[in-house]
Structure formats: structure tokens, C-alpha cells
Input
Amino acid sequence: MTFCPTRTAKIDLDDAALLRYSRHILLDEIGIEGQTALSNAHVLVIGAGGLGSPVALYLASAGIATLTIVDDDVVDLTNLQRQIIHTEASVGSNKAESAKHSLSQLNSQINIIALAERATGERLLELVRAADIVVDCCDNFATRHAINRACVATKTPLVSGAAVRFDGQLTVFDSRVAGAPCYHCLFSEDGEDSDSPCATFGVFAPLVGMIGAAQAAEALKVLMGLGETLIGRLQLFDARNSRWREMKYKQDPHCPVCGDADA
Ligand SMILES: [Zn+2]
Output
């Protein structure tokens, strides 16, 4: 039987937590209420590579109660140029396990679950259902669509990011919000966007840090209900020329994943 984490029970912040997270609590927009939301949240991070590294580090440092990290890949020497959660000592180890090792040194007070597997189908659905939010840090198109389908089916918010060469992008999907678009509304499965993994094309190292940090920020904001998130807005970053731009997008009423089936 495979292990499946569940949503965490409500906890209040003790004195140590109040001190540890004080620089967040000091922010009016966060306060004790916001930190309590983080300290009770369960985040599923799919992929512990270039994007997953900063995502997991920031979520762990912010005190997310439970982090489930899924990755079936093994740390390779060529990963260390950008996958900052891994070290030379972890080359040859599973990425989820290596990430858990680093994260537990950063924050021993949270629950970190490392799953060395490639979750698909019912298993993926089970993991997504157990989480409050999913952060997609995978490196391929098919998995992104599978994660999207699981998030729409379970009405779980999804923070999506991608980075290759000098180009990065991120957005947020939240099917709890009526009329909110999903990943398929933005990128159809038979579209032009074929896989372009870093192994083939290369990637500018700090770019994955920037996109991953922005993904972590969006995840924290969704969990706390803070400010305006990137629902319906795709942010694109050109690291070559240091330019951010934004593209707005809407739900496709004929979307086979989130649209009205009768439309
Ligand atoms: Zn859709």
C-alpha cells in the first residue's frame, strides 16, 4: 500500500513559532491569522528540480505545516548548476529524498514527505485531493496537463511555472472560482508548446530561481487569501533583456477539462 498524506489538523502558533515567523507576522497583510493559515496548510510540490528547489525552500522557511515533494528522478551533477536544494553529496540520490534532507535542516518543525515516484492517474488524484494547493514544478507538458486535470477534478488551486533557456512564465489556476480558466484553456494538448526540457536546450540558472520564488509567493498568497493572485494572468519573463510582460486569458467555454460539458 502506498502512503498518502492527508490534510493537517488545525494548530495554533506557539511562542517559538511566533518568534520564528515574526517577520511575516509583522506584515499587516499577514499577521497571526495569515501565519496560522500557513502553519496549517498542506502543499503538494510536484518536481524537485530547478523550480521545485526555490519553491520548496521558501515554503518550508515560511512554515507550511506539511510539504509533500514528489519526484522520481535522481540528482545528477548537471543539476547542481541551478537546482539549489541539492548538494554534491546528494548526487545519485532521489531528488525528493535529497530535497527532504535539505528542508529538514532548514525547518525541523514542519512535516516533510518525500515521495520517490512518478504520480499519475488515481494516485495523482489522491495526492492532489490531500493538498490545499499544488505547485507544478515539473518539466514536461504531459504531466502539466495531468496535474491540471487532477486539480480541476478536486477543485484544488494550482500554481504553474515553467522556465527554459532565458524564458520563464507563471500563472495561477483556481477552479474554486466560478469561471476561472484552467491550464488546458491556456495551452491545449495538441498545441505548439511541445516539451523543451533543460537537458536539450539549457537554462539560465537564476531564471528558475526567479520563477520558482514567484511561484512560492503566489502559493503563500492563495493560502492566506492575500492580495490579487495571477488567476487569468500569465506572466512572462525574458531574462535575456530583463523584461516582464503579462498576458490576460479567459476560460474556454468548450474546454474539455473545465468547460461546460454541454456547451
Ligand atoms: Zn479549462
